[in-house]
Amino acid sequence: MNFWNTYNIGLANIKSRRAEGIFAAGINSSRLARRIYESGLPTITVDDELTDHLPAKASESNGIATIRTDSVTTGRIAAQYFIEQGLRHFAFCGLPNKNWSRQRCEGFRQRIQEAKFQCHLYQEPHLKKDNIRNEERETLANWLRDLPKPLGLMACNDEQSCALIEAAHFAGVAIPEEISLIGVDNDELICNLLDPPLSSIALNSDKAGYEAAALLDRFMDGEKMAGQTVIAEPAGVVTRKSTDISADTDPAVADAIRFIRANAGQIIRVDDVVNATALSRRLLERRFRRIVGRSILNEIQRVHITSAAEMLIETELPISHVAQKSGFSTATHLGVTFKQKMKMTPLAYRKTFRRKD
Fold it and tell me: The CATH number of 3-69+205-235 is which of 3.40.50, 1.10.357, 3.40.710, 3.80.30?
């Protein structure tokens, strides 16, 4: 007996097992969705995975609430990250049959178009079932070869990034030198095992999960929660090697960017950056702003804040140590700058977005 049969039998007998509620994730068939729906039990679903397979307004009529990632904002974060890298070409690769993927694409494309750039979209082909893996890899490889470069590419999630990196290797396209790649979910097992390691947008899924559990508990206690939604806000980009690209259109600006990133944990000043190039401060400032879109000082601050944010999410270091390791003179300096840029204190950011084991 295979897994799906075992699962379906358990679901068919769910009431006899005295279940009081259902947490539905990974729903990929109308038959399974219908069984959950017909159980009549309070149900929490993820990103419309259940309601996508049900008649309109089913969630309102039968006690279904939803945990939903803010997918539009997630897409916009990736686009903004690439724009701030100084890139001028952009693309998105997703799963058109998934609502959350379409929303991430829409957010990504919106931000790119606001910046007056074009966004290339991967059109999923109809593949032969007997050779789907090899055929998809070849199709993706051809698409990657034809894209203008250097390019910022967003994958709808980390799993899709795996296919893109494999296709890039097959196509002879270099990541990150030619394509800067970002995934979504910050699945550390996937991200750190890929070659190169994958930059990814971290979602505040743990907090949403706790809130969803509380919602389901209230649901089962008889409160009318149908149609309610718990939003998982994205925490931001966790940077790894797959986005380590410089503005190669100007060697001096590229040198400046590399110096800033290499010294993300050090206290550096604009003059230090200038000294790493062969240009005068005035000329470098002008070229830097034209290519990157902001001043050298603003880029230093952005890199330091990004470094601090990553440590707040991924480590348990005291705030004072985070400040020292991310280029701030004191914890107070970090606190003031962080709140100004991120609209919350470092401690609040950690409590909101920290991944709980």
Answer: 3.40.50
